[in-house]
């Protein structure tokens, strides 16, 4: 049995607490709001974000960060990507040397173009940082439905440790050395999912969805490989796998936000309706900047930025993508 602190009590933090506690670990789930902690203590359930998932008795709840950090074998960093930097500043004086911090937030910081693990390593240099990503909607993890995911780390020892903590008969964990590729795929799929949702909202069909997924992974792969990621990562669980589930699932908040915009809502109205952090919006500008920095063509990412921030309608964006200059899919004849 291990002692594991879960930092962030949203839907995925709650689902992972359920998973880890059912693996026999002692889990301390931290929320930055005392009223949330009080509600957990009363109901043992996240009624707002993950209703119906009852957390076992070996999950403890706290709003005191030190109680979820000190003497823990591993921390799961599950706050939304926009809150990663602020949370890491609070964690830094509490974390022990070589304490494993496994990041499950997905995003690229717009102002620095840093991945989530980059930020953790910058602000908590004493930590041993890993990333855990894949097609893993909290609603299904919390129900114990079969799920596969990837842990990336700088050393095999760390990756295997996280794999051992998290693996179960319903949660299969693979390991990878490609932390960068994992995080690029995990962040940018949220941007493509906004486009897929918008197409659904416009009433387009399966052909359109398939085109967006296929051309979306082409864009993500081009950028990720140029940045130093491995090509095989983007054909794996955190590439095409995560992209498929986020573009197609009714659980996807990014797809839902795009769908509402396709129905005619503004970005602000759609976000308010989703009532959760839509991380693709935060990653869209960063993806555009990365495309410019690495001189990579990313027309879907560019179009989503125009829809989100420049007043282009989703229907006009689809038309622009469909009428771009004709190209080869495979360049070699």
In short:
This protein is α/β, with parallel strands linked by helices and 333 residues long. 51% of the residues lie in helices and 14% in strands. The chain has 15 helices and ten strands.
Could you give the topology of this structure?
Layout: E1 3-7, H1 11-22, E2 26-30, H2 34-43, E3 45-46, E4 50-54, E5 59-62, H3 65-69, E6 74-77, H4 84-91, E7 100-103, H5 116-123, E8 128-133, H6 138-141, E9 147-153, H7 156-166, E10 171-176, H8 179-201, H9 206-227, H10 237-248, H11 253-262, H12 267-274, H13 279-294, H14 299-309, H15 314-322
Helix pairs in contact: 4-5, 8-9, 8-10, 8-11, 8-13, 9-10, 11-12, 13-14, 14-15
Total count of helical runs of at least 4 residues: 15
Coarse shape? globular
- Portion in helices: 40-55%
Would you tell me the structural class of the helices and strands?
Answer: alpha/beta
Largest sheet: 8 strands, mixed
This entry's quaternary arrangement is single chain
Average of pLDDT:
95
Question: Whole-Å distance between the termini?
Answer: 57 Å
How many β-strands, per DSSP? 10
Low-confidence stretches: none
User: Roughly how many Å is the radius of gyration?
Assistant: 19 Å
How is this structure best described in words?
- This protein has 333 residues and is of the alpha/beta class.
- Helix content is 51%, strand content 14%.
- An eight-stranded mixed sheet has the order 5-2-1-6-7-8-9-10, sandwiched between helices.
- Strand 1, helix 1 and strand 2 form a beta-alpha-beta unit.
- Helix 8 runs antiparallel to helix 9.
- The protein is globular, with a radius of gyration of 19 Å.
- The model has no long low-confidence stretch (mean pLDDT 95).
């Amino acid at each position: 049995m291990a002692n594991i602190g879960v930092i962030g009590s949203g839907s995925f933090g709650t689902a992972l607490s359920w998973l880890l506690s059912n693996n026999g670990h002692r889990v301390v789930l931290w929320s930055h709001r005392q009223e949330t902690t009080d509600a957990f203590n009363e109901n043992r359930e996240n009624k707002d974000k993950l209703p119906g998932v009852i957390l076992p008795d070996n999950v403890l709840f706290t709003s005191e960060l030190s109680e979820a950090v000190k003497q823990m074998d591993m921390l799961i960093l599950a706050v939304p990507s926009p809150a990663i930097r602020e949370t890491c500043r609070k964690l830094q004086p509490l974390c022990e040397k070589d304490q494993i911090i496994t990041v499950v937030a997905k995003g690229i910081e717009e102002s620095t173009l840093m991945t989530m693990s980059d930020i953790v390593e910058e602000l908590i240099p004493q930590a041993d940082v890993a990333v855990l990503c894949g097609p893993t909607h909290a609603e299904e993890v919390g129900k114990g439905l079969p799920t596969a995911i990837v842990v990336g780390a700088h050393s095999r020892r760390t990756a295997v440790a996280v794999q051992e903590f998290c693996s179960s008969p319903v949660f299969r964990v693979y390991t990878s050395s490609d932390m960068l590729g994992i995080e690029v795929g995990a962040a940018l799929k949220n941007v493509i999912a906004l486009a897929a949702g918008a197409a659904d909202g416009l009433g387009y069909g399966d052909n359109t969805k398939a085109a967006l997924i296929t051309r979306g992974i082409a864009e993500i792969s081009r950028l990720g490989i140029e940045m130093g990621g491995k090509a095989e990562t983007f054909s794996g669980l955190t590439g095409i796998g995560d992209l498929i589930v986020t573009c197609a699932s009714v659980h996807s908040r990014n797809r839902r936000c795009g769908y509402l915009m396709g129905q005619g809502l503004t970005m602000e109205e759609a976000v308010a309706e989703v009532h959760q952090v839509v991380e693709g919006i935060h990653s869209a500008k960063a993806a555009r900047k990365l495309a410019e920095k690495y001189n990579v063509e990313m027309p879907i990412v560019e179009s989503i930025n125009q829809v989100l921030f420049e007043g282009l309608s989703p229907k006009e964006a689809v038309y622009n993508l469909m009428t771009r200059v004709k190209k080869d899919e495979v360049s070699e004849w």
